[in-house]
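The pair is quoted verbatim underneath.

:::
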Amino acid sequence: MNPNRTLPIPPHFDPAKVGQVWRVPYQQLAQDAQTWAKTHHIQPAIADSPKICLLAIDIQNTFCIPDFELFVGGRSGNGAVEDNQRLCEFIYRNLHRITAVIPTMDTHTTGQIFHPVFWVNSKGENPPPLTQISLRDVENGVWKVNPAIAQSLGDRNPEQIQQYAHHYVKQLEIEGKYPLIIWPYHSLLGGIGHALVSAVEEAIFFHNLARHAPTGFELKGNHPLTENYSVLRPEVLLDQTGKAIAHQNSLLMEKLLEFEVVMIAGQAKSHCVAWTIDDLLQDIQQRDPKLAQKVYLLEDCTSPVVVPNVVDFTDAADAAFARFSEAGMHLVQSTEAMDNWPGLAGSDSGFCVE
């Protein structure tokens, strides 16, 4: 088939169900995918040229389904659902062009530094969700590490954990990161919130079977002593003594840069998406700034964190994306034909990165 045309949307896709949780019928879908590939002459992904990757960041129920713990509504109030409707359609229309899909999975347990139970005040009360804990708060004893949690953290005693907490919020401030925010319990391993959005899981599974392209899942965020917005790097790498507590995801960085085109979508634009792109850009600039031109940000498939009357990260997210664009990355719309994206030229053999 002509690699520059788009495919129709398979009949199983129902955009009205994108905001719901349901079981993907794997066996029937596998048969449908194989039939779809034959009908539309879709070749195995291994033969693709150029090789195109979709990095799908944290498209999980906890962030993308209304009434779940950290639904990313954006200013529209329904942002993540609308984003995922467009993303699913984009995957299906460009099924024959997308070589690999790499979904990242925010993966947590209860006793982590950004969850309420980790901290207590002088009355032994946990901070309510969306509390910001500043360096001054820790220094003044407004919030302290919960002694019960500190005792469960292995080879560090409670005093060391308290010292680490001071070090942690100080490092966030020094490095210009967001202040420590206490999030509602979310994306808990083994829970339904951790799972991929059903409609996106369905699209990715369909791609896997139609293209013979295994999905490259990347788990992040399971270390108790650091946040991990970016899939490429935790927020803090070293403790107060200089000892490593976590490591950068160098293997994924290398894997991404092997592709000729890297497309990025997911949630939330202001946090996990922006921080991942920022880390990717920093690495690219150290290697060769021109590599930024291989990165395409699907702006209509991501939304910022907005909690009405509490916080609104829209402006911060837009400023970050403007900076990424200035560095050479491309801001694109999923609804626009890939042939028309800047830096990509159609040809009989597919796309050529200029």
